[in-house]
Write a structure and sequence with these properties.
327 residues, alpha/beta, Rossmann fold, UDP-galactose 4-epimerase, domain 1, 43% helix, 15% strand, binds NADP nicotinamide-adenine-dinucleotide phosphate, binds guanosine-5'-diphosphate-alpha-D-mannose
Length: 327
């Protein structure tokens, strides 16, 4: 039975990945941070097969202990401060967790991996946010980075460290440059979930307005359930490498609004949506669109859920969730 250690197990991708690896027969350990982390009970209720290990990406010795305890074949490093807006107000914390956390994990694997017969394979959750003020359209594995947030800068650091440890020490470490991926498990702080949950609440008469920031930004949005398969595929290859994972389409936030309000039968989104200065960022990533042809060619990966289906999935889910909460 292959064994996986997932950091960020309580997050959106951690849950999708655990669900997917379970279908592949993996024994799954999730690194959980904090004292009495409130997300853990819900996680274990939904996925009773997950085994919890305590640790934190800011604490090197806890990572070493987790690796020694679990003896994983594969490590998926998904843990991060992942909310770009928060990275502007807590830049040092973001750099420590999202950036230095990767280095700590690589070092821990180098140390503990040397004690194992079979080398540990590692997946690093890199991000399209690294492209920032994009240098070319679409973005590929070769496109230069120009991050626009402390989060983006931290991810560039983690990305280069992953490549460097692979080249310097022969670690089997892959970096997946994933474009935005969403779904019913998305955190409420991200724009897609903020929209789908607000649409549901407006439909049910629980809310009358939705306040957002910049509506002109464009994102390449895919479904998280499709993207975690690419993470796994990367670690099954004979040689470690880096891959862009994206849909190749870009949509403005207004298009997401249009489909979401239509899906709930609410008509024109302009009747409900306003803007508030607090949701604008000091620097913005205006446009992202990825070219995943390398992943399609070498991994055989392809997205299954398209943009309209993704929006509909999220709105329908939130209509159910909000209706249950309102009872
Ligand atoms: P998420 O829902 O925000 O989850 C982040 C996870 O990181 C949570 O489980 C959180 O644990 C954990 N974490 C935070 N600080 C930690 C620390 N100090 N030590 C250990 N774990 C810590 O993020 P996601 O959307 O699943 O994304 C997963 C990864 O992919 C992240 O690295 C993100 O930056 C990257 N990424 C995401 C996307 C996307 O569109 N979703 C795209 C590209 C890259 P608690 O909440 O329990 O504290
Ligand atoms: N969150 C949020 N809330 N974003 C808003 C709002 C709002 O009220 N109004 C407009 N936006 C705009 C943001 O300014 C940004 O341009 C866009 O919506 C998307 O914001 P998020 O959903 O917060 O995602 P992100 O693109 O900044 O970051 C996500 O994707 C990255 C991959 O490119 C996160 O998941 C990152 O962790 C991930 O790396």
């Amino acid at each position: 039975m292959p064994r996986a250690l997932i950091t960020g197990i309580t997050g959106q991708d951690g849950q999708h990945l655990a669900e997917f690896l379970h279908t592949k027969g993996y024994e799954i350990y999730g690194l959980v941070k904090g004292q009495n982390n409130p997300k853990v009970a819900a996680l274990l209720a939904e996925f009773p097969f997950i085994k919890v290990v305590h640790g934190d990406l800011t604490d090197f010795s806890s990572l070493v202990a987790a690796l020694r305890q679990v003896e994983p074949d594969e490590v998926y490093n998904l843990g991060a401060i992942s909310f770009v807006a928060m990275s502007f107000t807590q830049a040092e914390l973001t750099s420590n967790v999202t950036g230095l956390g990767v280095l700590r994990m690589l070092e821990a694997i180098r140390l503990v991996g040397g004690e194992k017969k079979n080398p540990i394979r590692m997946y690093q959750a890199s991000s399209s946010e690294m492209y920032g003020k994009v240098r070319e359209i679409p973005q590929t594995e070769m496109t230069a980075f120009h991050p626009r947030s402390p989060y983006g800068v931290a991810k560039v650091f983690g990305h280069h460290m992953t490549v460097n440890y692979r080249e310097s020490y022969g670690l089997f470490a892959c970096s997946g440059i994933l474009f935005n991926h969403e779904g019913p498990r998305r955190g409420y702080e991200f724009v897609t979930r903020k929209i789908s949950s607000s649409v549901a609440r407006i439909k049910l008469g629980l809310q009358d307005k939705l306040l957002l920031g910049n509506l002109a930004a464009k994102r390449d949005w895919g479904y998280a359930g499709d993207y975690v398969k690419a993470m796994w595929l990367m670690l099954q290859q004979p040689i470690a490498d880096d891959f862009v994972i994206a849909t190749g389409e870009t949509h403005e936030i207004t298009e997401f609004l249009e489909l979401a309000f239509q899906c709930a039968g609410l008509g024109d989104w302009r009747n409900f949506v306003g803007q508030d200065a607090q949701y604008f960022r000091p620097a913005e990533v205006d446009l992202l669109v990825g070219d995943a042809s390398k992943a399609e060619r070498q991994l055989g990966w392809k997205r299954e859920v398209d943009f309209p289906a993704l929006v509909e999935m999220m709105v329908r889910h939130d209509l159910d969730v909000e209706a249950k909460r309102a009872k």
